[in-house]
Design a protein that fits this description.
Chain lengths: 94, 296
């Protein structure tokens, strides 16, 4: 699936999310698999699932981390693509 | 007909045959599960999970109309009915000790987890007034390290599996009063003669129960020649490791899986978690034990 800055993502329907000390653990009930997110990954998860698109998630993340926009945008797209492939995020079509 | 009641952690299990491996429980105590010879062998359509060791697949789990079907390559098949709190056994091994070990080390802990108890695969030793849990995959040295700590005067709480009761902090209850060691460990650590068998030696112990959990240590083998290293583990990584070392019959069951996930997350938040990197060498064990003793 093509992921770009206009894509809107939401948590997968069978995914449990739990935050712990600024990091997160995701449990996918459907695949019976579990994943850990570090602090940056957790921040991207929050921003991406609350924003209307992945592009809209970038400004709030830029305010949190000392990173240039190009690098951050690349990281957001890469993580979103990986999480969609694993079924942890679902692409929401308009 | 069920006539024998035994203590398993702080719970009671009932059995239609004698389980001399376990201490007796008061006959009037309510059994968390009853074990009896199976009659109707279920015919599950598909297995949804399998257990693997270095030698390959050794067991598989299937959902059935009334619960779960656990099929082990060596030893026995078991049917678990969680609603009736029953475990039926269908042995196909000539040696009863093989399937009895599977029953106590895999089947009963899995069944108890499915009905809401929290059990972890690992050892535990009381250091001072607190328990230190030792978790890691098969072959990571849990039993040898537990035995080495026991030899230094610390009470062994569990060798293979323990139940956590309550929270803040949870209390550790070992499930079976024994430690299993390969010949070399039994000889080097406890001075026992080798049996030259193809399985571990089972050595009976007396384990106190209900010790507050003070630390969780994930064991990892180090190839470095330097001394052992103990380092904190982040919360998310700890939860992933705890999930890996928990008992689960159906990870896709919403209520059970979510309940366990939430409890393990809470556990990682309340109990300090560490990773221990160390070489598997009897000569290094005193230094490793000293590091663990410093946790208390």
């Amino acid at each position: 699936m093509q992921i770009d800055l206009s894509t809107r993502v939401v948590p997968g329907p069978n995914v449990l999310f739990r935050e712990i000390d600024g990091e997160a653990v995701l449990l996918d009930l459907r695949g019976e698999a579990y994943f850990g997110l570090n602090g940056i990954g957790t921040a991207i998860w929050h921003a991406a699932t609350r924003a209307s698109s992945l592009g809209d998630a970038v400004p709030s993340l830029l305010a949190q981390f000392e990173v240039d926009e190009t690098t951050l945008t690349k990281d957001v797209l890469a993580l979103a693509e990986e999480l969609v492939m694993c079924g942890l995020l679902t692409v929401q079509t308009p | 007909v069920t006539a024998n009641c035994y203590r398993f952690a702080q719970l009671t299990i009932a059995s239609d045959f004698e389980l001399e491996e376990l201490p007796p429980a008061p006959a009037e105590s309510a059994a968390a599960f009853s074990i009896r010879a199976g009659t109707d062998r279920p015919r599950p359509e598909a297995f949804h999970h399998q257990w693997e060791s270095k030698e390959g697949v050794y067991g598989r789990i299937a959902r059935t109309e009334r619960g779960f079907w656990l099929s082990f390559v060596r030893g026995c098949d078991f049917a678990i009915d969680c609603d009736r709190a029953e475990i039926e056994y269908f042995p196909h091994a000539l040696e009863p000790s093989i399937w009895r070990h599977l029953l106590l080390s895999q089947v009963v802990p899995s069944a108890l987890s499915q009905v809401g108890h929290l059990l972890l695969h690992g050892g535990a030793v009381a250091i001072g007034e607190r328990a230190v849990a030792l978790l890691g995959p098969s072959g990571s040295g849990k039993s040898s390290l537990s035995a080495a700590l026991q030899q230094r005067g610390h009470a062994l709480l569990a060798d293979d599996t323990f139940l956590l009761e309550g929270s803040a902090p949870p209390r550790v209850h070992g499930t079976c009063p024994w430690i299993r060691l390969w010949d070399d460990s039994a000889e080097a650590l406890l001075g026992l003669k080798p049996t030259h068998g193809d399985d571990k030696q089972k050595i009976r112990t007396v384990s106190p129960g209900g010790v507050a959990l003070g630390a969780i240590v994930f064991l990892s083998q180090s190839s470095r020649s330097s001394a052992c290293r103990l380092e904190p583990v982040s919360g998310s990584q700890a939860v992933v490791e705890l999930l890996r070392n928990s008992f689960q019959l159906d990870g896709a069951h919403p209520n059970t899986a979510e309940n366990q996930f939430l409890r393990l997350t809470a556990l990682a938040k309340t109990v300090p978690c560490h990773r221990l990197w160390y070489r598997h060498s009897f000569a290094d064990l005193p230094a490793v034990c000293s590091q663990l003793e410093a946790l208390s």
